[in-house]
């Protein structure tokens, strides 16, 4: 699926960063002189649509769920993925003491074609699942030249890919200058323009190797509090957001990020609901920022952990997120071997009852399937960095 450039927000920013280029040619119809890359993209889009069309509603529903169980047992992991989930996220409990995650990732993808998306939170530094990641992270990169971010994330992406992981939830596009903020130590900049440069650099470095993700949209820096246990809230207006927190996301989208992770953050001047459940924020991401890749929720278990009764049921949260516009529904906290299947069943029931339009599920499943096909067809560019060493 093609991306178009963010209009109102991105153009001025990208001119300032020297990144503005001609818009990509759409691949929705053949054109004279179409490049091999565009032809391949068209083929993947069509193949994804065909595969989704052949699925039952229940299969489509399972394909938009990214689940998790805390084990390194290959047999248990392989059995878990026979339910047809679109992805799995590796947490610390999935990485063996040896540090070699490849037996785990091999088990997760063994019986699926195309392979499911295997994701990891490998930001480096504060949030790191792979112990071999000794590369610089946000705590130091935000004070270094942008080239240092490129080098660090080039090496980090190679490490992630060698582990058999196809998606890195590793680029924090949040921005804040407040050292007391929950997200300060993980942000790539304390100023929107500085953060935007590093977010774009991290995205450009990772995309040839793994599918990179921008998080936590629309921006955790403006909303104080920890979204693992609450719904951080801000009264910042949409115009204020456009001039500040939006800039790193616009830069990352223009640099080609495959995924955009929605946070459980409430910008009450835009919508009282958390962004992850807000149709308004999904429309802004699609129509204003021009993002056309996969929108993934932050862990839906975090919503349940907020203590707010309306968000106590993860199945209800998953259905609401899908209806709002999310494509991939992530579930970690409180997850059991049955939880992801329950989410898929709830989605199936919602579509069959008309609560969620069938075309919304088809669209989500097609976007996820497209990314799965793209990643399975991607060349092993990470081999070019097989001997990467930590950057000073």
Report a brief summary of the structure:
The chain is α/β, with parallel strands linked by helices and 392 residues long. It has helices at residues 10-17, 36-54, 57-63, 74-81, 102-109, 138-141, 146-162, 192-206, 238-243, 246-254, 279-288, 300-304, 314-324, 339-353, 358-377, and strands at residues 65-67, 87-90, 117-120, 167-172, 211-217, 233-234, 259-262, 266-267, 294-297, 329-330.
Sum up the structure in keywords.
alpha/beta, 8-stranded parallel beta sheet, two-stranded parallel sheet
Structure, described:
The chain has helices at 10-17, 36-54, 57-63, 74-81, 102-109, 138-141, 146-162, 192-206, 238-243, 246-254, 279-288, 300-304, 314-324, 339-353, 358-377; strands at 65-67, 87-90, 117-120, 167-172, 211-217, 233-234, 259-262, 266-267, 294-297, 329-330. With 392 residues, the chain is of the alpha/beta class. Strand 4, helix 8 and strand 5 form a beta-alpha-beta unit. The longest helix has 20 residues, at 358-377. The chain starts with 9 loop residues before the first helix and ends in a 15-residue tail after the last helix.
């Amino acid at each position: 699926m093609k991306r178009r450039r963010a209009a109102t927000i991105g153009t001025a920013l990208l001119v300032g960063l020297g990144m503005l280029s001609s818009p990509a040619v759409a691949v929705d119809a053949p054109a004279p002189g179409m490049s091999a890359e565009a032809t391949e993209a068209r083929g993947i889009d069509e193949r994804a649509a065909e595969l989704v069309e052949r699925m039952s509603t229940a299969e489509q529903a399972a394909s938009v769920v990214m689940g998790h169980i805390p084990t390194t047992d290959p047999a248990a992991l392989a059995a878990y993925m026979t339910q047809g989930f679109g992805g799995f996220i590796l947490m610390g409990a999935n990485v063996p003491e040896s540090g070699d995650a490849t037996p785990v990732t091999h088990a997760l993808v063994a019986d699926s074609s195309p392979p499911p998306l295997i994701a990891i939170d490998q930001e480096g530094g504060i949030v790191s699942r792979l112990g071999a990641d000794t590369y610089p992270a946000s705590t130091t990169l935000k004070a270094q030249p942008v080239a240092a971010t490129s080098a660090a994330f080039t090496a980090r992406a190679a490490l992630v890919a060698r582990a058999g992981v196809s998606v890195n939830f590793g680029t924090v596009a949040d921005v804040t200058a407040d050292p007391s903020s929950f997200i300060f130590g993980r942000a790539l900049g304390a100023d929107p323009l500085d953060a935007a440069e590093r977010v774009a650099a991290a995205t450009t470095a990772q995309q040839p190797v793994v599918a990179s993700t921008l998080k936590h949209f629309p921006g955790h820096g403006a909303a104080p509090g920890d979204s693992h246990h609450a719904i951080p809230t801000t009264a910042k207006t949409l115009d204020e957001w456009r001039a500040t927190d939006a800039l790193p996301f616009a830069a990352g989208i223009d640099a080609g990020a495959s995924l955009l992770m929605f946070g459980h953050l409430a910008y009450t001047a835009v919508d009282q609901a958390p962004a992850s459940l807000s149709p308004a924020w999904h429309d802004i991401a699609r129509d204003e920022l021009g993002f056309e890749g996969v929108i993934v929720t932050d862990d839906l278990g975090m919503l349940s952990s907020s203590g707010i009764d309306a968000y106590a049921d993860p199945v209800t949260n998953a259905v609401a997120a899908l209806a709002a516009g999310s494509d991939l529904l992530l579930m970690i906290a409180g997850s059991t071997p049955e939880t992801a299947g329950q989410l898929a069943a709830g989605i199936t029931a919602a579509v069959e009852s008309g609560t969620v339009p069938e075309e919304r599920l088809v669209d989500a499943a097609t976007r996820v399937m497209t990314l799965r096909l793209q990643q399975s067809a991607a060349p092993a560019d990470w081999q070019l960095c097989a001997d990467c060493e930590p950057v000073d």
